Amino acid sequence: MVSRILASTITPLYRRGGSRIMFEYAIRTTAASGVAYRRHMSSERNVVQSPFGSVNIPEQNVTEYIFEGYEKYADKPAVTCGASKRSYTYGVTYEMVKRMARGLLSQKGCAMGKNDVLGLLLPNIPEFVPALHGGLLAGLSVTFANPLYTAEEVCRQFENAGVSAIVTLPMLLPVTEMFKSKVKHYKGTICIGGKHDLDKNIYGFEQFLKENHRSELPKIDCHKTAILPYSSGTTGLPKGVELSHFNLVANLAQGSHPAISKYYQPEYLDKKETILTIPPYFHIYGLNAILHSVLKSKNHIVSIP
């Protein structure tokens, strides 16, 4: 019995196998007995090698990776507010990170656990760094929203992410109060520039850090979800993206190659600059490619709220 091809109905079925993409084509044929399919397999290499060679990606959490070696620059400026001139050195910034982490975990603080999610509702201010990395060093996942979002947009994202505590500013407290009314197990609001109001489960950021909470910081799995940035919603409502500590560290390691960043060339290792940033930290580019890259290279970042 002889078959003949009726049409070139070729359907590629992609199967990833190791370093190869396998292309499996189903060619529709016909015979007296009806329609049949013949499968034809082909493969091609789909690996692109960097001209800069391989990059070592350490198994570290992103906070340790960024602040590694900070002691040498402990008295040098790390983050500054371009509007108020409020500024913190590397030594003070990392101390704030550790105090924030302990406060988030402490039973006298927010009593958060390893599966909890911290939400940041902040513009580009210096305190974004201890707020974010305090959460990460505590072993939490962190999400952040545009502070210009409507209350409904913030609540939708934070509900979707499973947020149980928020760091924000006094002017945005009404938004956190709305969110708090929608969730069952809310653990507290930390207000930068505000004061303690424990009846409302609100902690003033400065006092929160000064209380010197005692709690043991966990060992962090670098493959655990670190941050949950949300898309802009171009094809619908915003969607969360899970990025692990390893994802963030890998991206920073790539950007730290001397052929890409001048700050890792020998003549720049001890030469530090002041760098102005415009993109928001609640955007992944503003966060990892700018804020984290500047902190990793121990330069001085100035932001505009």
From TrEMBL:
Its main location: other. InterPro entries: AMP-binding_CS, AMP-dep_synth/lig_dom, ANL_N_sf. GO terms for molecular function: long-chain fatty acid-CoA ligase activity. The keyword Transmembrane does not apply. It is found in: Peroxisome. The keyword Transmembrane helix does not apply. Keywords: Peroxisome. GO terms for cellular component: peroxisome. Residues 71-295 form the AMP-dependent synthetase/ligase domain. This is AMP-dependent synthetase/ligase domain-containing protein.
